[in-house]
Design a protein that fits this description.
4-stranded antiparallel beta sheet, about 0% helix, globular, mainly beta, about 200 residues
Length: about 200
């Protein structure tokens, strides 16, 4: 469902839809703009649900666009995507999706063409240095800094906050790790030339 919250004292329900392509469990989403259009990337939270792109340019009539099915990941089943975050770099738009079961890691999708999203890089929690590679993510956020792009992830019931260099969407590299006891959600912002 889409809400108009221009007047926060009187939110208004606008468009909605319930029958996306094989999307039975909706666990996480993020939005981005491209020109005059606005899109949502939505990850299914269970049972082979796909990653679905939705055009919400007309908030009264959202339209399903491209899909990445779980079986389209080469050697990596896309399962239980409970976190997703988007960023722009070099004229392209990417989404990072967490996969909590089977491979247990993070996956990147090129969503520049919302009708034809393309699977790109993948890295396991273990290879990225998370405290416990078997725990799901609790938070995920991405940002650009100069010519580079990064993601920061936390683990539910774990003790890791990991920073990942995603400048090359086909090759994810952990660049920082700090111990925080049981971190949950995470959000990044810029202020005074610094990133927090």
């Amino acid at each position: 469902s889409i809400l108009n919250v221009t007047n926060p004292d009187a939110p208004e329900a606008l468009g909605s839809a319930t029958d996306w392509d094989l999307m039975r469990h909706r666990a996480a989403l993020d939005t981005w703009s491209a020109g005059d259009s606005v899109y949502v990337v939505m990850a299914g939270g269970c049972c082979g649900d796909p990653v679905q792109i939705i055009d919400v340019t007309d908030p009264d009539a959202p339209v399903a666009r491209g899909v990445v099915q779980s079986y389209e990941w080469p050697g990596t089943p896309l399962e239980q995507g409970t976190e997703v975050s988007t960023w722009s770099a070099g004229g392209s738009v990417y989404a990072m999706v967490e996969s909590s079961v089977y491979a247990r890691g993070v996956e990147i999708i090129d969503v520049t063409d919302p009708d034809s999203p393309v699977a790109r890089g993948f890295a396991t929690f273990d290879s990225l240095g998370f405290d416990d590679p078997h725990l799901p993510m609790a938070g995920l956020s991405t940002w650009s800094f100069g010519d580079s792009a990064y993601a920061i992830g936390t683990q539910l019931f774990g003790n890791s906050v990991v920073i990942i260099n995603v400048t090359d969407p086909d090759s994810l590299v952990a660049v920082g790790n700090v111990v925080v006891v049981e971190p949950h959600t995470v959000k990044v912002w810029n202020s005074g030339g610094n990133v927090y």
